[in-house]
Amino acid sequence: MARKFSMDRRAYLKTVGAAGTTAAVAGCLGNGGNGNGNGNGNGNGNGNGNGDGNDVIVPGTASGFPPFEYTQDGELVGFDVDLAEEAITRAGYEVGDWVDIEFDSLIPSLTGGDIDLVAAAMTITDERSEQIAFSNPYYEANQSVLVSSDGDFAPEGESDLEGQVIGAQSGTTGAAEAERLIEEGVVDGDDYRQYDNYTLAVEDLENGNVDAIIIDVPVANNFADSRSVEVAFVIETGEEYGLGMRQDDDRIGDINDALAEIREDGTYEDLVAEYFE
Asked: How far is residue 192's CA from residue 165's CA, in Å, rounded to a whole number?
């Protein structure tokens, strides 16, 4: 079951982040593919050096995707939330107010300037990369088929989904896998349900309105820990998640440097332990 950071834990991470920024070594990812810290060797000077005072990064996400992003006691929490805030802070910028919207609205909001960074377990794809710039990958995952643990339907492979009603969250790679199954003739297009978020999809699954949903493995496992659902089988997709920024936003180099430092000093493992173990 995913757990939320305590306020003391969050304060600790921010303290570590501030100290880490001072001690950061330029090019800590080991190559120039991260933008080389925007050419200035540090993150802190970049935000005020672009001429427009862009020292605040406004992050956006789509809650309802635990343990990556979800609401608890009215507060937005999750692995992505803490990772993004830590990366922004270490990169030398101020974290703006989070914007929580539907997943398929994130890229339009980013390119339109309403938000500056997407932190929403977003898979890096060629299609998305034509619209936005991604950070270096920070998480790997596959897709899974989630079914009710109280029902009789226990598929072992994709062919078993024939004649069944399946669902996925619109705009996700789970939806892309569902559409692939439709194109391959495994699932009938009339038997496909799209949802604004996976919380609604899981509720429909528990209520028997859909037979299975296709969803990222770590999120499926999280739902299985707290709801009457279980993973039937995994679809190997080999996805990588990245933080998204506008293609003309040079600050992504600083974010990459910060992500590398977060991995190197053990903070990343702390986050994984907090939310996935």
From this structure: 6
Domains for the chain: give ranges and CATH numbers: 7-138+242-276 (3.40.190.10), 141-238 (3.40.190.10)
Neighbours of 185 (CB within 10 A): 8
Which residue bears the tokens 């009339």?
A: 190
Confirm if 90 and 24 have CB atoms less than 8 A apart.
yes
C-alpha dist (Å) from residue 131 to 142, 169, 239: 23, 20, 18
Query: Could you read off the pLDDT of 89-145 as tens digits, one per residue?
Result: 999 999 999 999 999 999 999 999 999 999 999 999 999 999 999 999 999 999 999
pTM (two decimals): 0.78
How many CB atoms are located within 10 Å of the residue 114 CB?
14
Q: For residue range 206-251, list pLDDT tens digits in order.
A: 999 999 999 999 999 999 999 999 999 999 999 999 999 999 999 9
Query: To the nearest 5 percent, what fractions of the chain are helix, strand and coil?
Result: 40, 20, 40
pLDDT in tens, 252-265: 999 999 999 999 99
Say if CB 193 and CB 200 are below 8 A apart.
Answer: no
Q: What torsion do the CA atoms of 25, 30, 34, 39 make, to the nearest 10 degrees? A: 50
Alpha-carbon distance of 257 to 41, in angstroms, equals 10
- Tell me the C-alpha distance between 17 and 173, whole Å: 32
53 pLDDT band, cuts 50/70/90, is low
**Cα(125)–Cα(241) distance, integer angstroms:** 9
For 82, counting Cβ atoms within 10 Å of its Cβ (0-12 exposed, 13-18 middle, 19+ buried), the class is buried
